[in-house]
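Field reference: sequence -> structure
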Amino acid sequence: MTVFNIFTLLGGLAFFLFGMSTMSNGLERIAGGKLERILGKMTDRPIKGLVLGAGITAIIQSSSAVTVMLVGLVNSGIMNLGQSIGVIMGSNIGTTITAWILSLAGISSENFFVSLLKPSSFSPLVAFGGILLTMLSKKNKSKDIGAIMIGFAVLMYGMELMSGSMDPLAESPEFASFMTMFTNPLLGLAVGIILTAVIQSSSATVGILQALSMTGGISIGMAVPIIMGQNIGTCITALISSFGVNKHAKRVTAVHISFNIIGTAIWLSAYFILDAIIHFTFTDQAVTPFLIAVIHTVFNIATTALLFPFTKPLEKLAVKMVKDKKQKTKGAFLDERLLATPGLAVAQCREFTNEMARLSANMLLESISLIDNYNQKTADRLIAEEQKLDDYEDKLGTFLVKLSGCQLTDEDSNTVSTLLHAIGDFERIGDHALNIVNTAQEISDKNISFSEQANAELKIAANAISEITGLTADAFCFNNTSLALEVEPLEEVIDDMVDEIKSRHIARLTGGSCTIELGFVLSDLLTNFERVSDHCSNVAVCLLRIHDSLYDTHEYLNNYKSEGGEQFTKAFKAYQKKYRLPN
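Structure field:
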């Protein structure tokens, strides 16, 4: 064993960790917002969360990343503690898939097809395919697949380097003497904990152990405590991520730590008690990469099976570990930890923007209802909701700008662009709704009443504004381009209607059948109506132009009105008929 073997070992470890990180990041980008939708549907029951946790971790190859994701989701109030417990348990099972992939490195056979299963045989082809996709493809999704392939090949190359650098150790008496220290299970447990805590990846630590096992110098009895210690060491990532979060998010980390410590304590104790009674004959046998994968999997499945019926007690234990404080803790609007999984962060931003869309539409409907029947409680609630919209725009805008700097898929990048445009329009609709509330209060306080004709015209305009706002909210929330196409013709009808009502008002004012004060109030309402329809048009056009990969709003509108003339004209005439003003 020379210093160059150590250099090779460190280089192999670097390749291994880099490959794992590259592969994991690529898998996360491809998964995108699908993770969020799955999380929303499958965490209502612990068993669903268990399957979900195992599946997501197997996909992104990191139980630590899943736990950090859960901390961010719970801190943002998107998930609760109970929903996260099953996912945490499942992630421990899902992380074992890496060990199985790495165990293929131990395959040895002269048969061509069996040898082809060995990663060192096929990973060069995987790397070649990955580099072709990365260099030649124009689509981000294909580039991500290429990155996954390259990451896998680099990971396996690192594994080969590590195992190769350790070959001389097999004949070294000093190494054999050193390894006898690990017959002490507590020392093996400590090594597993510390090494995993430093690297922050149990999968990587298992890979190192599998590479070391190829020297033949590690027995099953030595490997068991190290493998169990790795499950505790991996908690360090979640512990670090829990700094600066609310009590609920801290409890996610508490569940993760207690789950792994309790499982390790029970099964390690059971293993050595049984060994003392039965005297296992296999403990002194040399462990192989395949056996390490088996031990790792059996231990994690057994721990989950043991503690899964006790999800409620684990939740109560976490609550006791992280006690309620007298001061009220406020959760983050969107936790920045979600930026580590951009696809998930985009999906959560979409959910909050959908809430803005619904809130602004409901605000407008209620503000219009106050024109004829003013109610102070409703007005106060609408004022509070408008402030909520302001907060949403401010926080979402800041988060989306940060998110736009992350590596995003084409679809997620388009979504971020749409959201950045839309949040301002929804906030402005809320502002105009508040203006209508103030005008309604003025009508009530001054006991103003419009003429019968003005009332009839105002009611038709209000109905049109109510429809366009609801149409826009539905189009945005469901990403429905068919509904979005209906918005622009209605906006044109509203513009013409507002101009006509203003012209009729001037005629009444000239004829003396209307006062200047009534004229100001009517003008305020009509101006807000028109501005609301403009913002609705902005949202709809943004949805449509990004869907059609166009980036100039005026160009898109001109194309729609000219090239899609028949569809536009048909909808325009239908809305004209529906909202025709009385003579």
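Note: Residues 327-331 have pLDDT under 50 and may be disordered.
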